[in-house]
Amino acid sequence: MPFGNTHNKYKMNYKCDEEYPDLSKHNNHMAKVLTKELYEQLRGKETPSGFTLDDCIQTGVDNPGHPYIMTVGCVAGDEESYTVFGGLFDPVIRDRHGGYKPTDKHKTDLNHENLKGGDDLDPNYVLSSRVRTGRSIKGYTLPPHCSRGERRAVENLSITALNSLTGEFKGKYYPLKNMTDAEQQQLIDDHFLFDKPVSPLLLASGMARDWPDARGIWHNDNKTFLVWVNEEDHLRVISMQKGGNMKEVFRRFCVGLQKIEEIFKKAGHPFSWNEHLGYILTCPSNLGTGLRGGVHVKLPHLSKHAKFEEILTRLRLQKRGTGGQRWRCRKRRPRPLCPHHLWGVFGGGGESRRYLDRPLQTLRKLEVGC
């Protein structure tokens, strides 16, 4: 939970040895980086909004992680966190994003016309496709640190912006706090609803404070473009549809996201961005484009195979069960900060075959052979 400035100064009455957390059994990027010397160097600092080093690392301290799964272990409370606590975040970002250096520049390309292929993923196996990202509104602290008033201001700005969309993006906002039973059930049936986080990583970071106050879901009338407001980030933008036409999903994603960004910018509230980190988000793992892509596939036979997990790992895919033999698969933790990350995931030129079609073709062949 975020501490105020006075509390942080009070902690300075204690020596570094007395305040330094026990990270001896931890397996996360924060614990790997945060030496006692670095803790001493940064513990007295705070951002202009009052976010401290202990606020950044608390989620990683409370959640040691899995012996074989390296988690991040730290969050940002505002845009300034990444510079004030650069001694922590820079090496975490380097490790998490494949050697990305403090001097590197981020390049974002959201021109959907550059995507070749991806419009013919096998419909016999691919049930639905989706692309998502997060965005933060400049001038407001991030969910681990924001006040109730800030969170409500972000919601009000988002409602105004999203409700001004027209054409294929015309839609409606549903606040979690005032949602009717019928609306809630419909959103559950549509697989749109997000509930209070139960992950210890999110809870320890302070993201779920005051739930469900100022949280909600907006979606277009066609139910193919939706935005979560005030979950892990200010905005979580998602494009999705049934079938395997990822190219169409990505087109809608790019066009809709650009429209939203233009509306916020005209209102004097651009998204948080800089040339080094790209789009600023709560978790260092999502910096850059913040882009994730995935498909919902049906694998009734292969999913029962003893080496199913190993197969997915070799294909650099992650899975999430959705019931029965249906699985949601996505590329295993891509590197959003890579200058050409967008086409590293969806493929520029012929790359979509390598990053999308080929892993799915392999799954299909294995499914048939089971």
Automatic annotation (TrEMBL):
Coiled coil: none annotated. Keywords: ATP-binding, Kinase, Nucleotide-binding, Transferase. One of its GO terms (biological process) is phosphocreatine biosynthetic process. ATP binds at residues 128-132, 191, 236, 292-296, 320-325. Dimer of identical or non-identical chains, which can be either B (brain type) or M (muscle type). With MM being the major form in skeletal muscle and myocardium, MB existing in myocardium, and BB existing in many tissues, especially brain. Reversibly catalyzes the transfer of phosphate between ATP and various phosphogens (e.g. creatine phosphate). Creatine kinase isoenzymes play a central role in energy transduction in tissues with large, fluctuating energy demands, such as skeletal muscle, heart, brain and spermatozoa. This is Creatine kinase M-type. It comes from Podarcis muralis (Wall lizard). The lineage of its organism: Eukaryota, Metazoa, Chordata, Craniata, Vertebrata.
